[in-house]
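sorry for the late reply, my laptop died twice this morning and i had to redo everyting from scratch. anyway the thing you sent over, i finally got around to it. pasting the sequence first so we're on the same page, its 354 residues, then the predicted structure underneath. double check i copied it right bc i was rushing
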Amino acid sequence: MSTNLENSAVATGLEKVSFHFNPKERQCQRMFIYHTITHISHANKVMLKILQARLQQYVNLQMFKLDLEKAEKLEIQLPNIHWIIEKAREFQKNIYFCFIDYARTFDCVEHNKQWKILKEMGLPGHLTCLLRNLCAGQEVTVRTGHGTADWFQIGKGVHQGCILSLCLFNLYAEYIMTNAELDEAQARIKIVGRNINNLRYADDTTLMAESEEELKSLLMMLKEESEKVGLKVNIQKTKIMESGPTTSWQIDRETMEKVTYCIFLGSKITSDGDCLLLGGKPMTNLDSILKSRDITLPTKVYLVKAMIFPVVMYGCESWTIKKAEHQRIDAFELWCWRFLRVSLGLQGDQTSQW
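ok and here's the structure:
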């Protein structure tokens, strides 16, 4: 294995991957409504894990940007944005946020530009060559209930389900940010002596500024540099959120949507920093299950604890809990148990086993 890494050689068979698609909903007619499951050989995973460890030492992300070692810890970024909103309110500043959405992000990475970027960022030639050999020789097949398709090659994008995909895309995104010169831009916010204008987690990029004009200039800088390497900002899905008044925006003759809240890394972020509870809709969606006579009461209680409360408390590490928030959380819990009791038609003395 070590010899392969040093000689940039790929063992026969390691470049073969199979895909399996699971529908996100019933009777799916479009491909993007499917979840993709990637089947990679164990030997391939071992080599990719070693290669990932070799690549980590060449990644140097700045403060407020996730490094690869912490790439899966979303709770690191969620407190950051809540903390910024709270500090802005404390010092009575208006903060303007732009939540960037790229169109088909991981599928649009161009391989030739990827190798050029890796070289410019100082990666050793043998590692870059090994990555290039893995991508150039990769063959893919698709498995369905009707059989297995013929093998074919993929000529664009980072590999679906690959351990290195996030690592390689982070390097790609870092190159874009460096060339866009966002860190040198005058448009930024100052929080407790620190000047920042962006937060990033994989392809989720958030721009921040103290005025509309500054935020728009940051967006245009990022958009132009992204297009140079093949990534396109989806203007229709990119959101603008502000703590002060704002006017309508148009980029390339497309109007950008202004919102009072946004789902950021699975957590609801509001312009006033309020941590709204999101469990009401999932609770009502369970109505038919909670009314079922075929499911026991302990099972229904377990479902509420397993499927509702985690939704409500997601990202709670970033909350500032005050007396009002305590009361709202307690009130929601009582509402859940009351909803379950009403669904079952139980009286108060019949719920002691909960």
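Confidence is low (pLDDT under 50) at residues 61-73.
thats about all i looked at so far, will dig more tmrw
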